């Protein structure tokens, strides 16, 4: 093994990233980085960079602009120590530019240090996608099946991936043996690429005969008129048969059967092998199952029409009796919400006397039981908040003109949460609300009592903002939720932290952190709040690189983006610029990436 300490030997790191990058998914995998003899100075030597060279392996008209961009993206400088981390960071920046299809890094050891040579192969950009033979589909239908779009980097591997989805789309329309050719043509006068999609649809299937098996209660004509594939076949010359639409038709027929009461219905189909005339004969196989009729017994509180809304077998079916069980549960929930806590519902299926055995009557036998009504709600232990304020939070209450007074345990739980939240907002951090319910002997009445232990009310005595150097303290105090003398709340404290951090971040400190601490008095009636701010490093916006714009000038994009290099980095401004570009409604998509933000660099490229 050659010794790395020998400064005169040439070290080839073989950092060949001959990666055909996807347009939007950029991942730097360790397997794509190989090293010549040893892995980044494993012997512990501390090599430094002597010089950096950039070679563009592309057309002459690309070399100057690509080289200038690469030099701005390479975050290495003569005199910097060289290691695996710095190389990987630089490669990631070059990849994020969406400009280079291959990155090759060589290192030559010299007495003054390492000379790095970056050999970069520029992408060819897709300038346009031209589609021939698309009828009867629209161009948008074809583009929606493709993973390429004008402005994307071109890679040869992407071409073969386009044909399958397009062929499948035409197959859905009923075409047989569709042939799709996707070629890349270099546009005259530049290095961009035009994608040519040539479609030969081929012949299409037509419907021959449509027959039904097992339909004892619905006539074939009634079924045919509900099928789109059959109606399309009535139009001479243009009626294409599509298996995709056949499946949609069967879904529609299944819903039709269920609406007619056949909750156990099941439909399938068989397509006979087409002959040379491309006619297909379709047989729809139907298992109608039992036909259900629904009756309710014992229901006095709700009408039959109301309870029928809870029966799902006519919409969801009844496979493995799941539909019946779900219907029973829905009705139990309805009764419980009305105060019938002990309602019992049983479903029974019986043959209808004098009719065929496959017609069943589904009988829901209901024992409603007593309705539990709130007799009274008493509140005890409240000293600071009035009983009126507390009652406004309660949905559990005795009957009134517009309220039936039904007692529902779940509603009481929500009421307890509402009262607890009310106290918390008023600064009672140690409050407790304990409910107690006493039922009458016949369970028709419920007496509800709420026992409240307020605990001390904590109010804000002082608010300190420490470490704020990037903007006036008055600006930060404007976003505070708490004021001196206000009740203290933890939720308000968290909101203040976020608001202050956002203010500081917009001044060019995206790594700002705010740590909030609270000191309570001995009796916990007063709280001193301190917001300690660490702004982190000042970050400036560096270079702005734009890619994918073939028809829109970069000037227009920069104008709408409305951010300037060397200005303090504002993530909100970047989001606003992205929104303005999307609002132009002329782009397929607008996305941006920041390089250097995660690494906490002082300058972040966009």
Question: Quick gist of this model?
Answer:
By secondary structure, this protein is an alpha/beta fold. 28% of the residues lie in helices and 26% in strands.
Structure description:
The protein has helices spanning 60-73, 84-96, 139-145, 156-172, 220-224, 228-233, 243-259, 304-308, 313-316, 322-337, 387-391, 409-425, 473-478, 490-505, 554-561, 571-583, and strands at residues 10-11, 49-56, 100-110, 113-122, 124-132, 153-154, 179-186, 193-200, 206-213, 266-271, 279-287, 291-297, 344-351, 359-367, 373-380, 432-439, 445-453, 459-466, 513-520, 526-534, 540-541, 603-604. The protein has a 4-stranded mixed beta sheet. A 4-stranded mixed beta sheet has the order 6-5-8-7, covered by helices on one side. The chain has a 3-stranded mixed beta sheet with strand order 9-11-10. Helices cover 28% and strands 26% of the residues. It folds into 7 domains: 10-122, membrane protein fhac (Ubiquitin-like (UB roll), Roll); 124-200, Ubiquitin-like (UB roll) (Roll), CATH 3.10.20; 206-287, membrane protein fhac (Ubiquitin-like (UB roll)); 291-367, Ubiquitin-like (UB roll) (Roll), CATH 3.10.20.310; 373-453, Ubiquitin-like (UB roll) (Roll), CATH 3.10.20.310; 459-534, membrane protein fhac (Ubiquitin-like (UB roll), Roll); 540-604. Residues 1-44 have low confidence and may be disordered. 25% of the residues are buried.
């Amino acid at each position: 093994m050659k010794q790395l300490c020998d400064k005169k030997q040439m070290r080839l790191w073989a950092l060949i990233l001959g990666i055909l990058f996807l347009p939007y998914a950029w991942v730097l995998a360790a397997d794509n980085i190989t090293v010549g003899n040893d892995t980044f100075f494993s012997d512990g030597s501390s090599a430094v960079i002597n010089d950096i060279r950039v070679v563009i392996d592309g057309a002459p008209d690309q070399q100057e602009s690509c080289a200038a961009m690469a030099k701005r993206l390479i975050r290495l400088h003569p005199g910097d120590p060289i290691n695996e981390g710095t190389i990987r960071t630089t490669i990631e920046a070059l990849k994020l530019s969406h400009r280079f299809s291959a990155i090759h890094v060589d290192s030559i050891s010299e007495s003054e240090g390492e000379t790095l040579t970056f050999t970069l192969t520029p992408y060819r950009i897709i300038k346009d996608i031209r589609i021939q033979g698309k009828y009867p589909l629209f161009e948008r239908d074809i583009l929606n099946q493709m993973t390429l779009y004008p402005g994307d980097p071109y890679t040869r591997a992407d071409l073969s991936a386009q044909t399958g989805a397009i062929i499948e789309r035409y197959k859905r329309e009923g075409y047989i043996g569709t042939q799709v050719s996707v070629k890349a043509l270099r546009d005259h006068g530049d290095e961009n690429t035009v994608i040519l999609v040539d479609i030969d649809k081929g012949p299409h299937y037509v419907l021959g005969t449509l027959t039904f098996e097992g339909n004892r209660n619905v006539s074939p004509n009634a079924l045919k008129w509900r099928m789109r594939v059959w109606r399309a076949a009535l139009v001479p010359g243009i009626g294409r048969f599509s298996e995709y639409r056949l499946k949609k038709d069967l879904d529609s027929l299944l819903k039709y059967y269920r609406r007619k009461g056949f909750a156990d219905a099941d439909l399938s189909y068989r397509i006979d092998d087409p002959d040379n005339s491309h006619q297909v004969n379709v047989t729809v196989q139907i298992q109608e199952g039992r036909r259900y009729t629904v009756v309710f017994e014992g229901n006095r509180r709700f009408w039959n029409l109301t309870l029928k809304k809870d029966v799902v077998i006519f919409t969801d079916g009844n496979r493995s009796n799941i539909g019946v069980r779900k219907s029973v549960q829905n009705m139990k929930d309805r009764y419980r919400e009305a105060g019938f806590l002990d309602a019992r519902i049983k479903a029974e299926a019986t043959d209808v006397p004098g009719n065929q055995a496959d017609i069943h009557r589904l009988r829901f036998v209901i024992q409603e039981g007593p309705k539990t009504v709130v007799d009274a709600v008493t509140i005890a232990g409240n000293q600071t908040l009035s009983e009126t304020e507390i009652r406004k939070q309660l949905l559990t209450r005795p009957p009134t003109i517009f309220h039936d007074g039904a007692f529902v345990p779940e509603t009481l739980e929500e009421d307890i949460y509402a009262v607890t939240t009310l106290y918390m907002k008023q600064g009672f951090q140690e409050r407790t609300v304990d409910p107690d319910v006493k039922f009458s002997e016949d369970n028709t009445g419920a007496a509800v009592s709420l026992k409240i232990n307020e605990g001390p009310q904590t109010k804000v005595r002082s608010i300190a903002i420490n470490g704020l150097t990037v903007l006036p303290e008055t600006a930060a105090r404007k976003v505070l939720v708490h004021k001196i003398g206000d009740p203290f709340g933890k939720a308000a404290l968290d909101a203040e932290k976020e608001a202050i951090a956002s203010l500081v971040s917009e001044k060019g400190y995206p790594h700002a952190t705010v740590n909030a601490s609270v000191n309570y008095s001995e009796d916990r009636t007063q709280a001193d709040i301190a917001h300690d701010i660490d702004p982190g490093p000042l970050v400036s916006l560096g270079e702005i690189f734009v890619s994918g714009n073939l028809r829109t000038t970069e000037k227009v994009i920069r104008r709408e983006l409305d951010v300037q290099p060397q200005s303090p980095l504002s993530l909100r401004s970047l989001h606003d610029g992205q929104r303005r570009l999307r609002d132009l409604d002329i782009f397929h998509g607008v996305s941006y990436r920041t390089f250097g933000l995660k690494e906490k660099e002082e300058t972040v490229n966009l």
